[in-house]
Automatic annotation (TrEMBL):
It is found in: Cytoplasm, Cytosol; Nucleus. It comes from Panicum hallii. PANTHER family: PHOSPHORELAY INTERMEDIATE PROTEIN YPD1, PSEUDO HISTIDINE-CONTAINING PHOSPHOTRANSFER PROTEIN 5. Histidine-containing phosphotransfer domain (HPt) contains an active histidine that mediates the phosphotransfer. This is Histidine-containing phosphotransfer protein. Residues 31-116 form the HPt domain. Its main location: cytoplasm. It comes from the Eukaryota. GO terms for biological process: cytokinin-activated signaling pathway; phosphorelay signal transduction system. Transmembrane segments: none annotated.
Amino acid sequence: MYQVTSQGYLDEQFCQIEDLQDEASPNFTEEVVSLFFKDSARLMTNIEQAMEKNPRDFNRWDAHMQQLKGSCYSIGASRMKNECTSFRNNCGDENAEGCMRSFQKVKREHGVLRQKLESYIQLLRQAGPAETATRPGCA
């Protein structure tokens, strides 16, 4: 996990999510991660569909991206969140080309984060509850 947080993929919010996991809810982190990816995939589909429509509705694009950015905040997906901000700035400038580039970066960051978190969840499953009590990268 240290690598994921030190590379800026996740921030302190993710550590706080992990801190909520205990014996009563041993799969809490995994459940939150799963919900994030389910929700974010749906939101990215909404954004893609909105971007395919004419005329361009930058307010709609921005509203959809604001929802995705909120999901990123909730899990601590900082690099994705930063790309969402870039997209929203491009919406404010009515820069369709910039929005397209930013959205590609959002999707790329989403894919990398999914890969890293799936690997991390696998490690958590293998380690078991006793070994997950101390996580590198989360103070």
